[in-house]
Amino acid sequence: MTDTASTGRPSVVVLGGGYGGVSVAKTLDDVADVTLVDPTEGFVHNIAALRSLVQPDLVDRIYLPYDRLLVHGRFVQDRAVRVHGRRVELESGGVLEPDYLVLATGSSYPFPAKNDESDLATAKARHRAAHEELARAARVLIVGAGPTGLELAGEIKAFAPDKHVVITDVADDVLSGPFVQELRDELRRQLAELGVELRLGVKLRELPSTPPATREAIRVTTTDGDEIAADIWYRTFGVKLHTEYLDGGSLAGVRDERGYVRVDARMRVEGETRVFALGDIANADRDVAAAAGRQAEVVAGNIRALITGEGESLEYARFGPLIAVPLGPEGGSGFFGDGLATPEMVSQLKGRDMMVDRHATLFGMSPDEA
Ligand SMILES: Cc1cc2nc3c(=O)[nH]c(=O)nc-3n(C[C@H](O)[C@H](O)[C@H](O)COP(=O)(O)OP(=O)(O)OC[C@H]3O[C@@H](n4cnc5c(N)ncnc54)[C@H](O)[C@@H]3O)c2cc1C
């Protein structure tokens, strides 16, 4: 399949239907011939993935089929395996060669924080099964004290306070990264109040051999010789960027030493005028959906201006070290730019509803539909 716009409108191909990609695709749907490509059947609102682990009635509202996203454009369930300039080769053998190409292929993260099943029925069944596994476990081991590990501990304690939860990390403190120390102190204070045990500055000799999120007796040993026993464990570290389709193509060299795609202020891939990249794979900012959303506005605005010849080109401005870490629906802390966020602020922004309805509505789902 060779694709050129059949509608007379310029063509835009968006690779990846995560937070950034769906926003670009939707915003340009009225002005371009948009094709959204993703190997999975639907968008995953993974911000609410950990809440759905403890509250499985939410599962139907976080896995959202792409078929109702675009009015004019189309969704193609396929995977980019090679990109050469604006030419995209798909796993199916198809080829797309649009006027504008947007790389928004994001990252994967260990289940249940992200779920890479390609069909939604299987993805949802896996999530519900993980809930059942957790429900039958009394002792939980979380390996990784970053925002995902802390959030997971908070969810489990909020919904099942009797479970024993221990978090381990090689780092000496929780939440490594560009954050103020008061935030770490406050999160540790709340975790202690919830009864979460922290084993920081310890290295495990090896990870459990049992797959994560599966109930089975586990015994791990730290390099100091201490033993930790649990009934289930979760891996909450190990982000992997999806840019392997650049290997061997003309854009292979645009990645920096950490693997991020280098973009300019207008979110164009280094050296390109009509290839853009955004979200977790771009080197523009931290790997957060909020940044992907803002970058999507810049990319869509710039492509629209190129297509219509109207409007100024937009430039992306970095967020500061902003973060919200819920610990259950009513707890948590964060940094919103002017000091520590209270549990009430975090709860209002994210913790209470995990932004579920906002995303379900984007995909044409009514508030009571599931
Ligand atoms: C548990 C958890 C909670 C989080 N909470 C927050 C939060 O509260 N606030 C916040 O701002 N951020 C949060 N994040 C981070 C946020 O989820 C990511 O930053 C965000 O998903 C990045 O969006 P993206 O559009 O770059 O890519 P992604 O959302 O990773 O989507 C990428 C898409 O590309 C597709 N894809 C991959 N390879 C290919 C290919 N070769 N061809 C075509 N398509 C491909 C994938 O299937 C996927 O659908 C959280 C993350 C986790 C794990």
UniProtKB/TrEMBL annotation:
A GO CC term assigned to this protein in UniProt: cytoplasm
Signal peptide limits: none
A single MF term (Gene Ontology): electron-transferring-flavoprotein dehydrogenase activity
InterPro entries in alphabetical order: FAD/NAD-bd_sf, FAD/NAD-binding_dom
This protein's UniProt keywords: FAD, Flavoprotein, Oxidoreductase
Pfam family of the protein (one): Pyr_redox_2
FAD/NAD(P)-binding domain residues: 11-295
Family per record: Belongs to the FAD-dependent oxidoreductase family.
Name by which UniProt lists this protein: FAD-dependent oxidoreductase
Protein source organism: Nonomuraea montanisoli
